[in-house]
């Protein structure tokens, strides 16, 4: 947990919050008014999540005001504005700055490069709104900053979620449900440790490591900013997650393996539909990360900061040592890809990643920058 000192100067903490620490509805309406936002109903279950709708921001704020006036209840249910790409929708607002500890962010760097998506979100919800049990996308890290209000987090260390699966192998929707005491349905639940329970105060930032399943409650009317992110320290966890996802798909459609020539390609298609990425796009992801660091280190070698590529702004503050570390981690992951039987079966001619070529470029770049003392001063 990072103290509120890290968020004190953020514009959103000054402008979105009233003097008594509540959401500043008037200011928020001035900024966002008719903006369409995604809203989930916390009182309804759709598979293992809440059903979502899109509504004008103004309509959600009107609902929220009425919800508070009605003693935090509504016939519409408990609605929660979540997964809103506010930073992408309003790039000039600059309502907050990513703390340096979280700035090595390959995931958002990749999507910024493609200019189609990101994993930066704003959440706004009344007291009682909550998020069901889950682990973050691609087993990424996440950080979450409370702009106002308080949250309660229930977190399980990686691996403990296996004890919480039901007889069909599914994870629970709500880890506080009495259903988990049903030994016929949840035969291993008693073996799970007690969750780590954390109360997050206004202004504080929580860091959630890869693979920690969690469930989150808003104890008050709350606004938060959340990022999912990956970098060289957990890329191997993402790669293992993708291998597990593909293995699950292969087991599901194993009976069709000998009846179709394109079975392996179909597995990749299904995997992408389920998890949002396939092996080919993972390769593209690694290439874009590597290319930016190669360009950055070459710019460092030339001594001309104006040559820094646009997508590597954070690298200029993290420096060449960090860029070299990133390249080493990409190289390690590519070497693992080249040993993977399912990756070998892909049509590499259609991929942007040419793994052997990129490995040579990475090694040459690191060797060259070392030789020119960019990384190591004599």
From TrEMBL:
Similarity remark: Belongs to the JMJD6 family.
InterPro entries for the chain: JmjC_dom (IPR003347), JMJD6_ArgDemeth/LysHydrox (IPR050910)
Gene Ontology biological process terms from the UniProt entry: positive regulation of translational termination
Domain of life: Eukaryota
Cofactor(s) needed by this chain: Fe(2+)
Catalysed reactions listed for this entry: L-lysyl-[protein] + 2-oxoglutarate + O2 = 4-hydroxy-L-lysyl-[protein] + succinate + CO2
Signal sequence, renumbered to the chain: none
GO cellular component, one term: cytoplasm
Keyword Iron included in the entry's annotation: yes
Single annotated GO MF: catalytic activity, acting on a protein
Pfam families: JmjC
Residue stretches making up the JmjC domain: 87-246
Keyword annotations of the record: Iron, Metal-binding, Oxidoreductase
SUPFAM superfamilies per UniProt: Clavaminate synthase-like
Name listed for the protein in its UniProt record: 2-oxoglutarate and iron-dependent oxygenase JMJD4
Keyword Oxidoreductase appears in the UniProt entry: yes
């Amino acid at each position: 947990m990072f103290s509120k000192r890290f968020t004190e100067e953020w514009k959103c903490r000054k402008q979105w919050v009233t003097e008594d620490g509540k959401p500043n509805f008037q200011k928020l309406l001035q900024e966002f008014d008719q903006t369409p936002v995604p809203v989930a109903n916390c009182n309804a279950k759709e598979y293992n999540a809440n059903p979502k709708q899109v509504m004008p921001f103004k309509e959600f704020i009107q609902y929220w005001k009425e919800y508070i006036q009605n003693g935090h209840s509504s016939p519409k249910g408990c609605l929660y504005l979540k997964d809103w790409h506010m930073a992408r929708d309003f790039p000039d607002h600059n309502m907050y700055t990513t703390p340096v500890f979280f700035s090595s962010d390959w995931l958002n760097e990749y999507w910024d490069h493609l200019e189609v998506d990101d994993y930066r979100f704003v959440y706004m919800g009344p007291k009682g709104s909550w998020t069901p049990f889950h682990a973050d996308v691609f087993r990424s890290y996440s950080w979450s900053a409370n702009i106002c209000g308080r949250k309660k987090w229930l977190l399980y260390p990686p691996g403990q979620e296996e004890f919480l699966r039901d007889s069909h192998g599914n994870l629970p929707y709500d880890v506080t449900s009495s259903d988990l005491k049903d030994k016929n349905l949840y035969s291993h639940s008693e073996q799970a440790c007690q969750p780590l329970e954390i109360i997050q105060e206004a202004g504080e930032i929580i860091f959630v490591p890869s693979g920690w399943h969690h469930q989150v409650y808003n104890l008050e009317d709350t606004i938060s900013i959340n990022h999912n992110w990956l970098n060289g320290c957990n890329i191997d966890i993402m790669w293992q997650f993708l291998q597990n996802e593909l293995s699950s798909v292969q087991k599901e459609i194993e009976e069709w393996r000998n009846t179709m020539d394109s079975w392996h390609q179909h597995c990749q298609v299904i995997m992408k539909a389920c998890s949002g990425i396939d092996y080919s796009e993972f390769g593209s992801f690694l290439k874009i990360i590597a290319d930016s660091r190669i360009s950055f280190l070459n710019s460092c070698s030339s001594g001309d900061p104006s040559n820094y590529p646009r997508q590597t702004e954070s690298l200029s503050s993290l420096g060449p040592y960090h860029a070299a570390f990133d390249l080493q981690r990409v190289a390690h992951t590519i070497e693992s890809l080249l040993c993977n039987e399912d990756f070998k079966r892909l049509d590499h001619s259609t991929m942007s990643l040419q793994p052997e070529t990129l490995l040579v470029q990475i090694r040459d770049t690191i060797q060259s920058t070392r030789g020119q003392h960019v990384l190591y001063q004599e």
